[in-house]
Amino acid sequence: MAKPLALTSGEPAGIGPDIAIEAWLRREAANLPPFYLLGDRRFLADRARHLGLNLDFAEVGVEEACTAFAKALPVVATGQLATAAPGRPDASSADAVLASIRQAVGDVVSGRACAVVTNPIAKSVLYRAGFQHPGHTEFLAELAKRDGKVPQPVMMLWSPALAVVPVTIHLPLREAITQLTSERIIATASIAVADLKSRFGIANPRLAISGLNPHAGEFGTLGTEDDEIVAPAIAALRNRGIQARGPLPADTMFHEAARKTYDCAICMYHDQALIPIKTIAFDDAVNVTLGLPFVRTSPDHGTAFDIAGTGKASPASLIAALKLAARMAAAQKA
Questions:
Q1: Could you read off the pLDDT of 87-143 as tens digits, one per residue?
Q2: In CATH, what number does 1-154+289-334 get?
Q3: Cβ distance 207 to 243 under 8 Å?
Q4: What's phi and psi for 97, nearest 5 deg?
Q5: At what angle do helices 316-333 and 16-25 cross, to 10 degrees?
Q6: Whole-prediction pTM value?
Q7: Residue 138 DSSP SS3
Q8: What are the extents of the domains in the chain?
Q9: Dihedrals phi, psi of 143, to nearest 5 degrees
Q10: Do residues 11 and 97 lie in contact, with contact meaning Cβ atoms separated by under 8 Å?
Q11: How many other CB atoms are there within 10 angstroms of residue 131's CB atom?
């Protein structure tokens, strides 16, 4: 029997529980792979009643999840109770969130589940509880540490229409520019290529690499970083046999005809990558962490405290994340 996906509940006060329940209710129409939800069954049942939804929950072991999935939403207990009301995180939130993530990773690393899918977390809530990592991605990398080595995680935003990878992520723009190096571009692009091959089944990935400055520096008249940092990185990637083009002006990289010429866009900073994909594919984009020894995907949105518990949250991005995780795990296995 195929192994299930491990789905974390995310921030209890956010929309994670709502969209997980909605995704399961749409399992047949969306042709979803089996998954189980890590969390507190009583809390999840209370949220379903709050949303006016009628469904059964089955508290199971991981090995029973696939069998239970057809008739009930499988819930694997983490041992942490959640008490937060929609939109109002409380003292139970941080422990519930972290236990769910740790257990999901443990289930995949042990071979009981095939991939990790994470619902949104509220970093501010975790920081108040003493969380030491910049975010979800870095925590996952720490959990993936083997023999004292922490893998380098790379964030990809993927949709059927566009895949983007930012070289620098959650940094102030001034700091992102100072931290941009040829070595960082090479490492990020190389990890992206490896996962595009092994987990997306693309034999020879084509990369479009953006410039940092307007017009990719306009031959040095609008900044020298593209000539001094980006271009040497692209040359090094080509020397490794990687199909890489650039540095390209970012303002002409993302129209429909341009997107047909590459498999992934490597961008220099956060908004340069995320603005185009959220414009093109806001509802079905998926956050993918590359470079980990296991598959991890996530919806491309936050906790949305303002609509938690209202029934207004769309499960579209989570459904896309579940389907992509199953596809990537199958490709990696093959």
A1: 999 988 899 999 999 999 999 999 999 999 999 998 888 888 888 887 788 889 999
A2: 3.40.718.10
A3: yes
A4: -65, -50
A5: 70
A6: 0.92
A7: helix
A8: 1-154+289-334, 161-280
A9: -65, -25
A10: yes
A11: 17
